[in-house]
Specification:
The chain is about 75% helix and about 5% strand. It is built from eleven helices and five strands, in the order E-E-E-H-H-H-H-H-H-E-E-H-H-H-H-H.
């Protein structure tokens, strides 16, 4: 990576194909021209291939087990499980698309057609924003039921189901611009190698990013922070009975886990996404700043996919029924293994 500074007497030809990188031409003044190189294809492909390979196996195993256990619990009319089931479905859908992403980033070609490419691209963002919505719903529900116990008793399971349907519809519609704003010059290109379509003017780009940041990040962030603060402050009530204190601690553990997942996985991406779009819209023109943003963006995007591995932690550490179900099945598996070993030893004797 380098910035070439040419004198006023020399105007070299501009090469737009430097080892797979995109060369940006920035006129700092009328007397100088700067070539500013973006991160190369090899760097991005290697990073994404390694990251998605690390995420795939743990994400597949933990979300499959979590979905199975949560579905068992949902048959018992557990109210706080419905959002978790949908969260696990969103994570599993994204995880199942990762092998195709890994194949592309290793082989530098996409033989599966344009529709599958756009669909996998769409699933990533659907997973992200559906997860943000369901984490917000879990936080609000736990906080609300803690503050208003009578509402918890009157709450119907169909309310949760209705909310989940609305979340899928709204998140699904809101994520459509992500694949629609991408185009490809080659049938073998996909994902990061799809170019971003330019809107008519910068005001449209800024407006679109502002709406996405407001409803996809800032409002959910405010909700989760408020619910965490409200739940934590309720524990400071000295007149709370011991049983209620235990329930409040469980609620705080769940809401705090939602907040941690949100801040670790989604906050860095959304902060960087704002600057990334400003680079693509050529609002930010300083070469060193552009390079820093374009190098950090893939790391933040990879971090956002880690929520598929972190969300099962939410189910395990925040739901006593989930812990009990996992513990029972683990003990049964260990007991069965010991019995098989004993029977094998007795046969040898």
């Amino acid at each position: 990576m380098r910035v070439l500074n040419h004198s006023t007497d020399v105007t070299p030809p501009i090469d737009f194909a430097l080892s797979g990188t995109t060369t940006l031409v920035l006129g700092r003044s009328t007397n100088a021209t700067y070539n500013c190189t973006e991160p190369g294809v090899t760097f991005q492909h290697s990073l994404y291939a390694v990251t998605y390979t690390i995420i795939f196996i743990p994400g597949l195993l933990t979300n499959s087990v979590a979905l199975w256990v949560l579905c068992k619990l949902s048959t018992k009319q557990k109210k706080n499980v419905v959002f978790m089931v949908n969260l696990a479905v969103a994570d599993l859908a994204h995880v199942l698309s990762l092998p195709l992403r890994i194949y592309y980033y290793i082989n530098y070609m996409w033989p599966f057609g344009s529709f599958i490419c756009q669909f996998c691209f769409y699933l990533k963002y659907l997973n992200m924003y559906a997860s943000i919505c369901f984490l917000s719903c879990i936080s609000v529900q736990r906080c609300l039921f803690l503050m208003c116990p009578f509402k918890a008793k009157a709450w119907k399971r169909r309310y949760d189901l209705t909310i989940c349907v609305c979340v899928w519809i709204v998140a699904g519609a809101a994520c459509l611009p992500f694949p629609l704003m991408r185009s490809s010059q080659s049938n073998n290109a996909c994902f990061t190698d799809l170019s971003i379509k330019k809107l008519d003017n910068k005001a449209n780009s800024v407006g679109m990013v502002t709406v996405a940041e407001l409803f996809g990040f800032l409002i959910p962030l405010s909700i989760i922070v408020y619910c965490t603060w409200k739940t934590k402050s309720s524990l400071q009530d000295c007149h709370t009975p011991l049983q209620n204190t235990i329930e409040k601690q469980k609620a705080l553990r769940m809401v705090a886990t939602c907040a941690i997942v949100f801040f670790v996985c989604f906050a860095p991406y959304h902060v960087m996404f704002l600057f990334f779009m400003m680079v693509k819209a050529e609002i930010i023109k300083d070469c060193s700043i552009r390079q820093g943003i374009l190098y950090l963006h893939p790391f933040c995007l990879s971090l956002a996919s880690l929520n598929c591995c972190f969300n099962p932690i939410l189910y395990f550490f925040s739901t006593s029924e989930f812990q009990g179900r996992i513990s029972r099945h683990s003990s049964l598996a260990i007991r069965a293994r010991l019995m098989s070993k004993e029977s094998t030893c007795s046969e040898k004797d």
